[in-house]
Amino acid sequence: MARRRAGMSQAALAQAVGVQRSAVSHWEAPKGKNPRVAHLRAVASTTATQFEWLATGRGPMVLGEDLEQYSVAAADAVLIDDPVEMRLLAAFRDAPGRARTALVELAEELASQRIGRNRTTRPT
């Protein structure tokens, strides 16, 4: 809908976003693949569409002029002030789907081991 509203062909959107036309076709298919967050940001920007609407279907589709100056895509909001945490998040975002699951499970396992060590009582 965003692409059509912007009057763009699949090929034109693909070129603007930096993907093949077939990727756009897959994104638009009823049981197609979901684009990565970076691609969603590019589509939102290219088509002047709200990122949240594009990603979730919630909120207004079009970014109104009155909100444009205050709008920040949720994917661009950085609420992390720790460089190591930023590296972890960047690695997670760059990883393919199955690797993401493994990364989360590894982080959870490491966190539970750390918690286990902190909770042990020391002899007095």
List key phrases describing it:
single chain, 124 residues, mainly alpha, 434 Repressor (Amino-terminal Domain), 2 domains, 8 helices, 61% helix, elongated, disordered C terminus
Q: List the uncertain runs.
A: 69-75, 118-124
> Can you say what the CATH homologous superfamily of the largest domain is?
lambda repressor-like DNA-binding domains
**Helix percent band:** 55-70%
Q: What is the chain-wise order of helices and strands?
A: HHHHHHHH
What is the molecular shape? elongated
Structure class? mainly alpha
Rg, rounded, reads: 20 Å
- Count up the domains: 2
Q: Would you tell me the overall average pLDDT? A: 79
- The CATH topology of the largest domain turns out to be 434 Repressor (Amino-terminal Domain)
Biggest pleated-sheet summary? none
Tally the helices: 8
Named CATH architecture of the largest domain = Orthogonal Bundle
Number of E-type strands: 0
Distance between termini?
67 Å
| CATH classification class of the largest domain | Mainly Alpha
Q: In what range is the share of β-strand residues?
A: under 5%
Overview of the structural elements:
The protein has 124 residues and is an all-alpha fold. The chain has 2 domains: 2-75, 434 Repressor (Amino-terminal Domain) (Orthogonal Bundle), CATH 1.10.260.40; 83-119. Helices cover 61% and strands 0% of the residues. The chain has 8 helices and no strands. The chain has helices spanning 2-5, 10-17, 21-28, 37-47, 51-56, 65-68, 83-94, 97-119. The model is unreliable at 69-75 and 118-124 (pLDDT under 50).
